[in-house]
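Researcher: Structure for this, please.
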Amino acid sequence: MVKAIKILRLLIISAVLISLGLLVFGFFSIPDEFSTLDSGGLSINVIYSLDPLEHDVATRNSSEETMNVKVKLFKAIPVKNSRVKVRRRRYVVPSGEIFGLRLYTRGVVVVSTEKVDTSSGTRYPAQDAGIVKGDIIVSIDSVPVTDHTQVARLISAGSGAPLRIVFERDGQSYETLFTPAYSAAQGKYIGGLWIRDSAAGIGTLTFYEKSTGAYGGLGHAICDVDTGKILPLSEGDVVEAKINGCTRGKAGEAGELCGSFSGNAFGELYANTASGVFGVLKNVDLEKSELPVAVKSEVRTGKAEIISTVDENGPAYYDIEIERISPDSSDNRNMVIKITDKKLLEKTGGIVQGMSGSPIIQNKKLVGAVTHVFINEPSRGYAIFAEKMLETEDAVIDERQKQAA
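Model: Predicted structure, token format:
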């Protein structure tokens, strides 16, 4: 009898300790906000369940409902409060096709400033006006500017008089007086500015929707090569492209798909964002199969595939491993992936420039897209959740429709 009591006491103590451990683990491991697909019988797993707080719906629209919930251990012990997005299942066509991108900036981007040698000495017009590398010049004397030739013309035509320049920096608008300098070498007034007004390149189309033609690609922004900042988009389009070859990646040196534009524009570019590029295609292939888009809570570490175009044969499936998942990553580096497919490793050495946007398929769902390569280990890199890209696409299309209304 005494022995039985001791065993029972040990079992009770073990149960209490295990429960305490699960409480602590759940509090720190369960995110403050996550997504699910069904508001009935909400649960994370057999251990943790979700109990919606009565009359506490944060937001609701046609595609999702965000509610505040109480996370419970064994459906009884409160762990913490979280917010859960209850979403309807979305279906898209995963692509993997290479496409060309042509982007024209809103304003012009200052990529460098320099001195101007005048007959009376050296001047620094940009520095004197407080303009630095990375600033976006929006207008000169109330004239909106769109390209570098226009900027040069306005500066030269002013005959050295101060110009009122409006520029943006980190999302904030500023105004300054800019005084050009007369270049002894060029025989005209100049600003000592190197600027960029457009960009072009190739990437990978991640997905599109049959019903609307809305698409997402790249999984990251198109950034200026000199400043590293996201290029502000005025207008742009997507163009048919083809692969001409590939420079294999190796430790310390990123590889690159060598491609060229091969046809006309087949879609519009609406937005250049941290989550990728988004817009609408002119025509979509209605015969291609759709796949459901996974919410981030459905993504698992383990085997998966990517669809990439790395040669003239078009999109193909290649094996990868999802090594780590970071659901709350603020910089969209939601997954660490590793290329395991021997054929792809032989062709490219791993992830190379141009593969950004390659859709990731797991358990017959679109779970994400390739975004970055680890320079010192090209077989590994980062990926973004497809759910995040789709959320951004929705916001972009909604904003476009508001502007058109």
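Researcher: Any notable elements?
Model: The longest strand covers residues 256-273. The chain has a mean pLDDT of 87.
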